[in-house]
Amino acid sequence: MSDSAYYPVIHGHRGCRGLRPENTLPAFRHAVQLGVEVIELDVVVSADNRVVVSHEPWMSATICRTPAGLPISASEQYAHNLYTLPYAEIVRYDCGLTRHAAFPEQQPEPAYKPLLSEVVRNLDNLACELGRAPVRYSIELKSDPAADGLFQPLPGPFLELVLQELRATQVLPRTTLLCFDKRILQLAHRQLPTLPLCLLVEDVQPFSQHLEQLGFTPAVYGPQYHLVTPELAAELASLAVQLVPWTVNDPTDFMRLLALRPAGITTDYPNRFLPAR
């Protein structure tokens, strides 16, 4: 590819968190309408084993309201544990009317936490209506060893529930699975060696150490953007590992990273960085 043809794929973080309520149908639909080709989202599991799109396995005090429309305090949010609630109860909470204070451009509107299957069906239909190719998905399994059995299933059942949904919706061939928890990625690699996997990182441990702990070379490496250096980019390129840093919202940071030729950029503001059509 010539330099003039190069441009990273823009991944819409939680849809487009800077513009619409995160991880909701309004955010995902707006991102698709903007022209995003890859939707990044997070999944957790409900008490009745439904795969729910949510960044936290609880109702965040920052953005969610109770079914009665009341705010949730920071001290109470963990009691609204999605892993202990059936989806019929989860869907009664609103997580769209309260604007996230860090995103002043975000347009609040009523929104609930959707099922992964609902998101895929909705966006596939929207892409068809727009005459666009179906979007691809970067799906993060929100797994933490300290939360096993408390806020999430064990890694095996968690992964299996997600894979069942991806197969049922026929979206597995255009999905990359993301995780900070190496246990999830190790299981996925053993079960589906050709499935693209992304190791997410937010610490300063060298890539080589992460690789040694993981036990295989992932298709994608997803570090927090400030961790990306020319040396890291060169190391990844030498191993044919795609670099997709997160979460890049400032044009200055974007231009710095652009010089390192990442495969993709994850952003809350895809409108700022999508190439002109």
CATH topology: TIM Barrel
Number of domains: 1
Rounded average pLDDT = 97
Provide the low-confidence segments as ranges: none
The proportion of strand residues reads 15-25%
Helix-strand topology string = EHEEHHEHEHEHEHEHEH
Major sheet attributes: 9 strands, mixed
Proper CATH architecture: Alpha-Beta Barrel
Count of DSSP H/I helices: 9
CATH homologous superfamily assignment: Phosphatidylinositol (PI) phosphodiesterase
Overall CATH class? Alpha Beta
Spatial separation of the terminal alpha carbons = 19 Å
Helicity, as a percent range? 25-40%
* Strand element count: 9
Radius of gyration: 18 Å
SSE-based structural type: alpha/beta
List the helices and strands and how they pair.
Layout lengths: L8 E5 L11 H10 L3 E8 L5 E3 L33 H4 L25 H14 L6 E6 L13 H14 L6 E5 L2 H10 L5 E5 L5 H8 L5 E4 L6 H9 L3 E2 L7 H8 L5 E4 L2 H4 L4
Parallel strand pairs: 1-2, 1-9, 2-4, 4-5, 5-6, 6-7, 7-8
Antiparallel strand pairs: 2-3
Written overview of the protein:
This protein is of the alpha/beta class and 277 residues long. The chain has a single domain (9-57, 111-273), classed as Alpha-Beta Barrel (TIM Barrel), CATH 3.20.20. The chain has 9 helices and 9 strands. Strands 1, 2, 3, 4, 5, 6, 7, 8 and 9 form a 9-stranded mixed beta sheet that branches. It is globular.
